[in-house]
Design goal:
Elements (H helix, E strand, L loop, with lengths): L1 H19 L21 E9 L12 E10 L5 E9 L4 E14 L2 E12 L13 E13 L2 E10 L10 E11 L2
Antiparallel strand pairs: 1-2, 1-8, 2-3, 3-4, 4-5, 5-6, 6-7, 7-8
């Protein structure tokens, strides 16, 4: 049933595109098979490395892991993303929205924003130890059928408790495409 629905939607979109090209068009219509970018929705896991220090006890740069995901918004250059950056003491849960720019077949770069919710304030995560607004920039690509790789940098603004310091964390991982 899901495959039939996807086929019907694709056929409707293709028909509308062909019909909107206009009868008087001097250019022949071509279906672009190898369009750049990826519309993959995926979930993955990997490493996360904090590269900043907040200047207080418990603010040291922290190495840990990440679980990240992306749900592409159909027919729009935006995605809803989520990340969990964890250390051996606690984790930061980060919902985000991103703008995605295709750069090659099956590959995007993206920039976005979100908010980091630290489960145990004062305990270190790769992105600081306090709740904070987050800016993200990264890239993603489908390297094999259904296998995604991703990497990004997250900037937590005022992400350390009792400190005005910002935090920066670098992430990389491998994911499974589920759409």
């Amino acid at each position: 049933m899901k495959a039939i629905l996807k086929s019907a939607i694709a056929l409707s979109a293709l028909s509308a595109t062909i019909l909107s090209a206009g009868i008087a068009s001097a250019q022949p219509y071509r279906v672009e098979v190898d369009k750049p970018g990826t519309d993959a929705s995926y979930v993955g896991a990997g490493i996360a490395a904090g590269v900043t220090n907040g200047g207080q006890t418990g603010d040291a740069a922290t190495f840990g892991g990440n679980i990240q995901g992306r749900v592409a918004v159909p027919n729009a250059p935006v995605s809803v993303r989520g990340a969990v950056l964890f250390s051996d003491e606690t984790s930061a849960i980060i919902p985000m929205v991103s703008y995605d720019q295709p750069i090659a077949k099956n590959a995007n770069v993206y920039v976005g924003a979100g908010y980091s919710f630290v489960e145990a304030n004062g305990k270190p995560t790769p992105l600081g130890n306090d709740n904070a607004p987050v800016i993200v920039a990264g890239g993603e690509a489908e390297v094999l059928n259904g296998v995604m790789v991703y990497g990004d940098a997250k900037w937590g603004i005022n992400a350390y408790e009792n400190s005005p310091a910002d935090a920066v964390s670098l992430q990389a991982g491998v994911g499974y495409r589920f759409n």
